[in-house]
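During the no-cost extension, the postdoctoral fellow (Dr. R.K.) reprocessed legacy sequence entries with the updated structure-token encoder. One reprocessed record is reproduced below for audit purposes.
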Amino acid sequence: MKKSIVKKAVILAVVLVVIAVLALCVIDMKCTVDFDHMLTLDELKEFQARNDVFIQGVGMTVIEKETGQIGTGLIDFRGYDMLRSELQSTVDDMDKEAQNDRYITSAYIMAPIIRINKVKDDNAVYSAEYAFDFSGKMNYGAYPQSSAYDRAGDLWDKSQ
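Re-encoded structure tokens follow.
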């Protein structure tokens, strides 16, 4: 009788471990990825293809050419054509010259935790933090705070 209970407990434990491992392979997690330099659109495409992740949003840094002031923003990712438009939309001065430059500094991605662990080892990644949010909504509140904006000056120096 006692052997039967132990055997059932072991089987249950093995089943739970298998379920947990499968969940890590299937359930998408949200992750904030800060890049170690300001990415171009093509570099972001390569990053996404290399790591097979779903991009929900993109963090941008805007640098005003005249003052050097740095601003940040977050945009929903609705495809590369829309992102190209966002990156190229600048405020023009009277002579129709761009007053600012925009760069990709972070991404808000979804992927199974196994892929996110792979993302952390990507050469373009400075840091990657994941967050638990099983609501399935497209809310950025579940993402960890990005630290790329605190390092915007460092990012600028690296990109030159």
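The helical segments are 2-26, 41-51, 80-88, 113-120, 152-159. Residues 2-26 form the longest helix (25 residues). The remaining legacy entries will be reprocessed before the final report is submitted.
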